Amino acid sequence: MGSYKIDNLEQYFATYRSSVENPESFWETIAEENFVWRKKWDKVLEHNLKEAEVKWFLNAKLNITENCIDRHLETNADKTAILWEPNDTEEKPRHISYKELHEQVSKFANVLREKGIQKGDRVCIYLPMIPELAFAVLACARIGAIHSVVFAGFSSTALATRINDSECKMVITSDGAFRGGKTIDLKKIVDEALKECECVETVLVAERTKSNIELVPNRDFLLQPLLDNASQHCEPEIMDAEDPLFILYTSGSTGKPKGMLHTTAGYMVYAAYTFKNIFQYQENDIYWCTADVGWITGHSYILYGPLANGATTVMFEGVPSYPDFGRFWEIVQKHKITQFYTAPTAIRALAKENLDFVEKYDLSSVKVLGTVGEPINEEAWHWYNDHVGKKKSPIVDTWWQTETGGIMISPIPYVTPTKPTYATLPLPGIQPGLMDENGKEILGNQVEGRLCIKFPWPSMARTIWGNHQRYKETYFTAFPGTYFTGDGALRDEVGYYRITGRVDDVIIVSGHNLGTAPIEDAINEHPAVAESAIVGFPHDVKGNALYGYVILKEIGEGRNRENLKKEINQEIADKIGPIAKLDKIQFVSGLPKTRSGKIMRRILRKIAANETENLGDISTLLNPEVVEGIIKGK
Ligand code: WTA
Known about the structure:
Distance between the termini: 60 Å
Largest sheet: 8 strands, mixed
Shape: globular
CATH superfamily of the largest domain: ANL, N-terminal domain
CATH class of the largest domain: Alpha Beta
Number of domains: 2
CATH topology of the largest domain: Rossmann fold
CATH architecture of the largest domain: 3-Layer(aba) Sandwich
Radius of gyration: 24 Å
Low-confidence stretches: none
Bound molecules: 5'-O-[(S)-ethoxy(hydroxy)phosphoryl]adenosine
């Protein structure tokens, strides 16, 4: 095992040092000793960050599903790979063993091949958190198809944009989804989306809610009968290390969503390595990450990372508030969860409820707690530590991004002393730096700046699907030669990092990245709206909520304002999804702009947060007079 597992602080520092002094031999040893390769690499790394070019494990051959499934069959065939917990407490959980996972994925992969899907084809997966979602993802990986999972809370328009951007040939969906007390007709959303998508030839439909659906002849097929007829033997496609594994869309501050492309070997090595260390995973642990597979956290830390380690990973279909606010803790008790990984927004929501919901359950199985997706505030950290971890389970505050593929800065539990609100230290192989506004690195401790990563790591996204130029411009031009994260951070006196939040126009609401531009575009399509600007403002559960400043056209002026607000939010729900709805809408007569016409969001953010005393110098604005009006009209 060697450097694969870190057990104490001394070992961490030694490992970290060697990973920086000789990154190639560091990653080579890990890759060599812990994975199954059909052929080893000729070279570990080739890179030119100025051009945004990176390759790892050049010319190596492998299939990630052999690493996540087949190799565990020899010793662990009957071990539970995926423990599926349904939405409804009356329904029984499913224990899917590695053997069954192998069968299901192989059959599914054969169905994909039968329907004409080949290596390199894009397959869009739009499914709720049911086992078929895991099978679909792994089946794509088995045959070398590139999966693009779209979170099943996105609207039909958002789904269509993503399907078209990567020209998916197939969509895998379900009749519907159960979420708490609600049923959502997913197939209808897909049908609506596909009116705009000519590239899709086939739709596979898993049955979950048994709701009424229409099947378009020769395009739509129920999944189960196809699986029933498929062989359970499926030769994996042998992939090159740098062959694409998946596309996952994330919001940018401008323009359409970015299809981040991850490739095979580097992603696998990094996801597996970080899973093992950050959760101090041991054989027989029952690990649970509450994210949705529709986000990167679900890709790396529900599926690929845990399965590559032969772990038991829990997949939960429901929501934390159903049937009541004790659901998470009931599941922890029932399955004796050892590692629990969730989002600060969920913690804040649960912390508002009666303590009974958490205290009536036995949580003594928990060894490690984790958070991800946004900064965790001190209060939520302590609530988590006191009432869930009972002050004995270290909290790993894990900082990373869709683009980074895996966790980058995080404590290693029982190794790194934790500090509330701090993601603490970089993982081995990760070289963070803080930059000032002029692109100069800020050295030393007790400093604050823009967070960059100065050296490539195996799981970094390789490009934006179809637009390498945008990839380069977004991440590699602000500070040439380094990867710019878009986040601000500070480094304390001992070198611990604390992420302070986005420094661009991405707003994180309940852990979801939302770009301001697409929301503004959606609002501006309302016939009564002339122009709009969106900013984030602090919210005690969601972290940030959205505040919209809207200028009406003349035809809107006479209309009922409350109705208009509802219509604007409906427009957003239709174009993007309910997660992007605005908490507050203010109608204004103008927006503060620079002389070059750029909206000054800094001022709007302060007004939204009620910090109007220190707006800074507004005299350079094109129209300083509007500011007063906006403050008055709040
Ligand atoms: C934010 C999620 C503070 C950050 C894995 C980042 C965090 C963005 C943390 C990426 C954390 C994620 N502390 N902020 N522990 N983790 N973020 O792509 O702003 O959905 O850039 O990936 O979430 O969100 P994404």
